[in-house]
């Protein structure tokens, strides 16, 4: 349990900013007021901005090994390229989880949702490696093992053509059994490690897999996660498979709830937005990967007006290709100014900060524990150095943080009261050693187009009406 008192730190209040002290006892915020007596360690907060930690609400950490290398393709062909790389090892999964966490922490994040890609036949070892990394570094982590029970080729609409698909290499029952083992072994919220159920999406999962995951979520009180309507092809596919939208289908299955967060939601109808609002589901907005893969611009302003909780994320590092949460928040805020002429709906920097912190917490069913600077909440806190050139000269600190290009401005981070960044440096792991490993276990290279993409491309172009 840690006790500390931050002195003279800048915090936002309704009509501006104030300089105050913040006291943390037993990992919880116990007082926010000027001139508090020191309890525990004294922390100098002078010329620093204190905010609740952000939530990086959707990523795939092991994609770090493939960032910057996959050519500009839409999701369906990009995925085929991704599958063409040699399998990772659990050791590499461990290193990329650490790398992902470092970048998230140093851009204001204190929680990460890792929709973790599993190494076939080493699924448990994959999860154990990520758990080890997140525990070591000390970031709060929701590990959502990425599961599917249909083969990749079924993720593209048939377009009226008869196609043959190889069955997926594991049965639905085996996958659900595996998930229950994972939950029993690793779900431990007190230690900062949560397991979430996360079928990858309706395009590659059966109803039975979604239903089984729902049952596990109810039985063990787990968050639910999934990709949803990321691409035009997925919208077409849902109509082919279900005769309705993927949102309506998930509602019919009962998957949508106040602890369900859904990555992307680019291709939503007005009816879909209404359903997401009614079910209190959360949209996880990944603006950079939506741009990188040409998926489209998610109807974020419309969704917010309909009362849907919208939060930000980086998405996997081979479709972004970074884990800078401040960058995702900036682009995710201002991107929508071009879709809606009514500037009164545009996202302000303060709203963006609230979406990234309290909104993110709400999407993970922990808004009562973290996400705001309030007495009684767990200390998931980030301090920003307002003396840094990228935050100068002095204007509106949150405006500069969201709309500017702050770099190296995170000075201190606490997760659950534990300090894991001090003076801009990660204190829990050896970052130099990590960099050395990432360097030594990779090489400079260029990707040649894979055979599997070539095989899929003609059909993809046909169903998307793109010509030869
Ligand atoms: Zn994703």
Please outline the helices and strands:
Elements: E1 4-13, E2 16-25, E3 28-33, E4 41-44, E5 48-52, E6 54-59, H1 75-83, H2 90-105, E7 109-114, H3 123-137, E8 140-143, H4 172-186, E9 193-195, H5 207-220, E10 224-228, H6 232-242, H7 246-253, E11 260-264, H8 270-278, E12 282-285, H9 287-292, H10 300-305, E13 309-312, H11 325-334, H12 349-363, E14 381-385, H13 397-403, E15 410-415, E16 418-422, E17 425-426, H14 431-440, H15 451-463
Zinc ion binds next to loops.
Model description:
The structure is a single chain. The chain has two domains: about 120 residues, Urease, subunit C, domain 1, CATH 2.30.40; about 300 residues, Metal-dependent hydrolases (TIM Barrel), CATH 3.20.20. Helix 12 packs across helix 13. It is built from 15 helices and 17 strands. The longest helix is centred in the N-terminal third of the chain and has 16 residues. The chain has about 475 residues and is α/β, with parallel strands linked by helices. Zinc ion binds next to loops.
Any key phrases for this structure?
globular; 468 residues; four-stranded mixed beta sheet; TIM Barrel; binds zinc ion; Urease, subunit C, domain 1; alpha/beta; five-stranded antiparallel beta sheet; 2 domains
Q: How do the strands of the widest beta sheet line up side by side?
A: 5-14-15-16-17
Radius of gyration: 22 Å
Number of strands: 17
CATH architectural arrangement of the largest domain: Alpha-Beta Barrel
CATH class of the largest domain: Alpha Beta
Look at the structure and name the CATH superfamily of the largest domain. Answer: Metal-dependent hydrolases
What percentage of residues falls in helices of 4 or more residues?
A: 25-40%
């Amino acid at each position: 349990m840690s006790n500390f008192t931050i002195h003279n730190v800048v915090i936002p209040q309704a009509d501006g900013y104030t300089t105050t002290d913040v006291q943390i006892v037993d990992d919880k915020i116990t007082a926010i007021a000027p001139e508090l007596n020191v309890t525990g360690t004294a922390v100098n907060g002078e010329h620093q901005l204190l905010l609740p930690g952000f939530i990086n609400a959707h990523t795939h950490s092991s994609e770090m090994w493939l960032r910057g290398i996959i050519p500009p393709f839409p999701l369906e062909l990009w995925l085929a390229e991704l599958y063409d790389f040699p399998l990772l090892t659990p050791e590499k999964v461990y290193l990329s989880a650490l790398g992902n966490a470092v970048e998230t922490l140093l851009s204001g994040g204190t929680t990460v949702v890792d929709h973790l890609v599993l190494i076939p036949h080493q699924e448990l070892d994959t999860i154990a490696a990520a758990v080890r990394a997140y525990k070591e570094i000390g970031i709060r982590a929701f590990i959502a093992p990425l599961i599917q029970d249909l083969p990749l080729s079924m993720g593209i609409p048939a377009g009226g053509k008869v196609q043959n698909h190889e069955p997926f290499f594991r049965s639905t029952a085996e996958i659900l059994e595996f998930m229950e083992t994972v939950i029993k072994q690793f779900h431990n919220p007190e230690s900062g490690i949560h397991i979430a159920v996360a079928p990858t999406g309706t395009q590659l999962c059966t109803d039975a897999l979604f239903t089984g995951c729902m049952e596990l979520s109810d039985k063990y009180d787990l968050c639910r996660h999934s990709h949803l309507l990321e691409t035009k092809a997925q919208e077409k596919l849902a109509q082919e498979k279900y005769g309705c939208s993927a949102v309506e289908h998930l509602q019919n299955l009962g998957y949508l709830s106040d602890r369900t967060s859904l990555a992307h939601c680019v291709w939503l109808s007005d009816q879909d937005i209404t359903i997401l609002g009614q079910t209190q589901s959360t949209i996880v907005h990944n603006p950079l990967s939506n741009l990188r893969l040409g998926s489209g611009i998610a109807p974020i302003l419309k969704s917010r007006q309909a009362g849907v909780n919208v939060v930000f994320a980086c998405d996997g590092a081979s479709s972004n290709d970074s884990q800078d949460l401040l960058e995702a928040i900036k682009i995710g805020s201002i991107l929508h100014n071009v879709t809606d002429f009514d500037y009164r709906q545009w996202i302000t920097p303060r709203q963006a900060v609230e979406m990234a912190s309290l909104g993110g917490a709400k999407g993970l069913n922990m808004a009562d524990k973290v996400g705001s600077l309030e007495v009684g909440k767990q200390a998931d806190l980030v301090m920003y150095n307002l003396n840094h050139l990228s935050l100068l000269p002095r204007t509106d600190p949150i405006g500069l943080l969201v709309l500017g290009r702050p770099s190296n401005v995170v000075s201190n981070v606490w997760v659950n009261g534990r300090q894991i960044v001090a003076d801009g440096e990660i204190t829990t792991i050896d970052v130099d050693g990590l960099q050395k490993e990432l360097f030594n276990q990779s090489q400079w290279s260029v990707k040649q187009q894979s055979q599997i993409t070539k095989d899929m491309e003609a059909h993809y172009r046909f169903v998307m009406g793109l010509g030869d």
